[in-house]
Amino acid sequence: MRHVQAVEKLLDFLPSSAIKSLVVFVGKAEFKTEKPPGVYAISELINYQQGHTEEVLSLNRVQFCVGRLETTRLAITRQTDLAHLQSLERRLGRKKLN
């Protein structure tokens, strides 16, 4: 939910209906229980996309959004990943998410 809120804030010129929250498992990752709505294996993502064919944004608008997201994101480093995991552990009160 926080990720969606952050994206909505950054892309405040878009209607909130244009922003979807999906979790995609890749590789050998498996969801251990029944998957909640919005959770997919990578092999299911194409079917999801094919079921959503209405054009919401032009290609130019998508490229603009990607550019805005890329220029404001944190660096892609192991250190950033660890800091994110530590933040989640503090907030959620869990031990060792990684």
Write the layout of secondary structure elements.
Layout: H1 2-10, E1 23-25, E2 39-41, H2 42-50, H3 59-72, H4 78-92
Summary of the model, kept short:
With 98 residues, this protein is mainly alpha-helical. The protein is built from 4 helices and 2 strands.
Number of domains: 2
Number of H- or I-type helical stretches: 4
Percent in helix: 40-55%
Strand order of the largest sheet: 1-2
Query: What is the element string, with H for helices and E for strands?
Result: HEEHHH
Indicate the radius of gyration in whole angstroms: 16 Å
* Main sheet summary: 2 strands, parallel
- The average pLDDT value, as a whole number, equals 87
What is the number of beta strands? Answer: 2
How much strand? Answer: 5-15%
Distance between the amino and carboxyl termini: 20 Å
Shape: globular
Give the low-confidence spans: none
Which structural class should the secondary elements be placed in? mainly alpha
Describe this structure in words.
A two-stranded parallel ribbon has the order 1-2. The two termini are 20 Å apart. It has two domains: 1-55, no CATH class; 57-98, no CATH class. The protein has helices at 2-10, 42-50, 59-72, 78-92, and strands spanning 23-25, 39-41. By secondary structure, it is mostly helical.
What distinguishing features does this structure have?
98 residues, mainly alpha, 2 domains, two-stranded parallel sheet, 4 helices, 2 strands, globular
